[in-house]
Amino acid sequence: MLRGRQVRRMRPTGIYNPTSTVAGNQHWGHATSRDLYHWENQQIAIFPSGPTEYIYSGSAVVDVNNTSGFFPNQTNGVVAIYTLAIYTTQAGEQTQEIAYSRDGGYTFTKYAGNPVISINSTQFRDPKVIWHAETQKWVMVVAYAAEFVIGIYTSPNLREWTHASNFSHHGLLGLQYECPNMVQMPMEGSDTPMYLLWISINPGAPLGGSITQYFPGTFNGTHFEAVDQVARIGDFGKDNYAAQFFYGIPGTEPQVSIAWASNWQYCQLVPTGPQEGWRSSMSLPRYNYLTNVSRIGYDLVSAPYNITGQASRELAFNSSLGNSSILLDYSTVASGALYFEANVTHLTAATLAGSVNVTFTSSQSGESVRAGTYVGGDTFLNRQYTRGFDNPFFTDKFSATGVFNETTGVWSLSGVIDRSIVEIFVNGGEQSATATFFPTAPLDIMALSATGISPNATVSVAVWALNSAWAGNENVNGTVVGNVTTGSATGNYSAAAVRRGALLFEGRMAGL
Amino acid sequence: MLRGRQVRRMRPTGIYNPTSTVAGNQHWGHATSRDLYHWENQQIAIFPSGPTEYIYSGSAVVDVNNTSGFFPNQTNGVVAIYTLAIYTTQAGEQTQEIAYSRDGGYTFTKYAGNPVISINSTQFRDPKVIWHAETQKWVMVVAYAAEFVIGIYTSPNLREWTHASNFSHHGLLGLQYECPNMVQMPMEGSDTPMYLLWISINPGAPLGGSITQYFPGTFNGTHFEAVDQVARIGDFGKDNYAAQFFYGIPGTEPQVSIAWASNWQYCQLVPTGPQEGWRSSMSLPRYNYLTNVSRIGYDLVSAPYNITGQASRELAFNSSLGNSSILLDYSTVASGALYFEANVTHLTAATLAGSVNVTFTSSQSGESVRAGTYVGGDTFLNRQYTRGFDNPFFTDKFSATGVFNETTGVWSLSGVIDRSIVEIFVNGGEQSATATFFPTAPLDIMALSATGISPNATVSVAVWALNSAWAGNENVNGTVVGNVTTGSATGNYSAAAVRRGALLFEGRMAGL
């Protein structure tokens, strides 16, 4: 696997409703982190200018060369690019606006010349901007959502944008394209990064609701060309939408993304809500790079970002489990979060057999969440045996099929379970799945077993307790207070409590 | 909607294992029907020539002009085109062979010059042949399964084939392409049919396992060109695979297809089995045509073929249900099969609200199967509340999203439930879903309700009992005996009992 650099500081801002636990009243929330797991809330970054305005998804860049002119004598000027959506009695225009920060991203001033792109559309949103060094231009991808078109615009200065090309009607359509990202992406085995176009769709995904798909390809400064006509899906669970890639990581290094871990089919209904002061969460931060999977070809690897750095203690380890199992009570793990790995090694094409299964059970209620992988074949994730939420769209079972790599001789399943969310990874992230779940009592017992594995193969397993991502920020009541603000154009906001580490935002997040 | 002609007689042959209820020992079974619901078993059509041979999927044509030379003085000569797969200690070569029938399709003679296409591949199968009048050539599509390529071959005589082009890496890949079909397909609102390329994938579908996708496009006799790079999925359930289109229906009329109603992830494990003498079933026969759905664009409509012709009596009817419900006990319906329709009419974009829900419940066990549609939005199918089969890949909930058509002002849900399979249709087949289910006791109570519908809209509902498709063929024990044969190259076969109308074949079916 490629290894990424240590990211010094990440600064996400994202769609945030400071007055409720459902979508609406959208602001840009803001938090900072040095490790992508522990986050410090900051003041709300961008406010709507009035009650008919919503601040929608977008992105941010560092304008090192002061192309915008906003930053004389500065190399750390930050420009945020976002969609301003108007809602009166009905949906109004969506335009692209910018705001700049001269204090390193803490406070933003809206550009007086806004909007920077206006095309008289009610379905035009979610700009993602990168710097294209070869042409010395900024490049924006933005969704003409209802037309299944991703527009590509270029700009010398972030203020004046020229339409360059469209990428349209590729892959799964659903009912709209949203939250496009275009980023340079390293290709394993090559020194030359490719480009990746990333398109979220909602509703109408194959599993129902929202999903994200991607297209490896090339980009010449104005036109993106996909390598083929294939629809590749980013996550085989149902709770991984609109991931955003952080800005500023060199294209030769693994990129980093964070997704919103829910689905529009039920995100407003799941049981966390008014009492907790939070509802949705974000996915784990992920390393991403392209690889060539045996026979299947292009595949975007998505693996937890430096998760071992968050381990607090080892709960179980066995370098030669054989066809056996481990059982552990993790009720004393304060964070409630575990990371596990099960690696089957020394495999050959002739010894592909058996499966590895993990089950997380509640000792109080008997509810469980289960995952398993058949060596060289299907992997499943099953949230059927939790009873805290019943909804016809809350699909219970997810699965994907991988391909064994004879060169490595390895088949592996790893994952993180964190109270009400589980993320699993096959073969280091060749496939990944994200699912929320809602038991009526906490899960606190883990069983991991291997069955039917060839005696010529080796099964090594380990389970670690993870640090709490938010304990350092909690108040005496155990609550982490959200993006408190002392004032805004539209009045005072009550604090919305948040929980779970990186997962500060109700909605989607724009990387900085 | 387009209306299809009455089909006089259909003659499917399909992959069939006469000695077991699991895949293996593949022959071509054979049955005939005048209505696509009542079927008469015929002798096995094509046998393997020895124990290392399997007869795999393919298709058949009527060689009216005796292009093959097999049929002097005949206009009803039938040629079957199939894959011969060799299995010894491991998978051997797959080649394309032909066999001809001079008695109207009852008995077949293998061509002495077989194979007609051989490329030294173990992953090369499922030929589907049509006649291309403009070039006066036969055209075959066939899968290079592991390479994600559909090969297009042409032939003047069905014996000599020339490779013309490849269609590759489009849509969802999964792990292999299988069972391609290319057919002329009428386009609603146009006098000129389009072509449709239909590709099944397995495993690795978004829902897990197997699924079918399609590509509208043009075909010039050698090259197929898709209208765009979109992956369109044929069915939003999990039990509709490898549908085959019947041969010989003019391209200006709706085409007819039948799918295999299971999923490779669990088809060998579902509870029907040795005791019943059958396991899988086929889908309802379907009318198919292309239409242009509001905003989404190209959509393949799939609706039950002449289902009202199979109604035996009306169980419920209400032309103005309002926000109310009907409840009926259908335990006295001998077939166990119902067709229902719920049409919400006189809708406008401003009155899209509410939902229509149907539930089929077992009075003995309380188990149920449920479906519902939110007017103008999501439709779901839920088999979660049946308990006869528990498997991590037996996904329980399926959903899709439709688009309201202001021109018609209609939103509708219809469907057929038949003991252990349910097929639902939104807006006359703009979306469709197929799901098998396995209750521990028969479902026998139906509830249909409308809630939250605008008072300005009208809800009309009807439920019909359906004729039994197989009662006419059953013996004194209530069993329908399968494809009995009096001898074969590999010995005698025990009869494999079959059930459920059109659903004669364990595996996939090739249309004739």
From TrEMBL, chains A, B:
Pfam families: Glyco_hydro_32C (PF08244), Glyco_hydro_32N (PF00251)
InterPro entries linked: ConA-like_dom_sf (IPR013320), Glyco_hydro_32 (IPR001362), Glyco_hydro_32_C (IPR013189), Glyco_hydro_32_N (IPR013148), Glyco_hydro_beta-prop_sf (IPR023296)
Record keywords: Glycosidase, Hydrolase
Keyword presence, Ligase: no
A Gene Ontology term for the protein's cellular component: fungal-type vacuole
Residue ranges of every copy of the Glycosyl hydrolase family 32 N-terminal domain listed in the record: 16-290
GO biological process annotation, one example: sucrose catabolic process
Domain Glycosyl hydrolase family 32 C-terminal: 377-464
One MF annotation (Gene Ontology) recorded for this entry: sucrose alpha-glucosidase activity
Entry annotated with the keyword Lipid metabolism: no
Family: Belongs to the glycosyl hydrolase 32 family.
Classification via PANTHER family: EXOINULINASE INUD (AFU_ORTHOLOGUE AFUA_5G00480), INVERTASE-RELATED
Name of this chain's protein: Glycosyl hydrolase family 32 N-terminal domain-containing protein
Lineage: Eukaryota, Fungi, Dikarya, Ascomycota, Pezizomycotina
